Amino acid sequence: MLKWVVVTVLALVVFSGARPWLDRLHIGRLPGDLNFTAFGRPWSIPITSTIVLSLIAAAIARFI
What is the pLDDT of residue 3? Predict the structure, then answer.
């Protein structure tokens, strides 16, 4: 259980740091991705981008 919490926190830190780079690739701007401002801070919930990246990762893993 603790291992999954650590992995989730590390993934969030990595994706938060990579956010400017991912914006240049238009990841997080696809239809189905939610972007809004709450409490004076921009929030992003990239539902469609997550699905697309998962499919790409699965395709790469299948061919390796």
Answer: 81
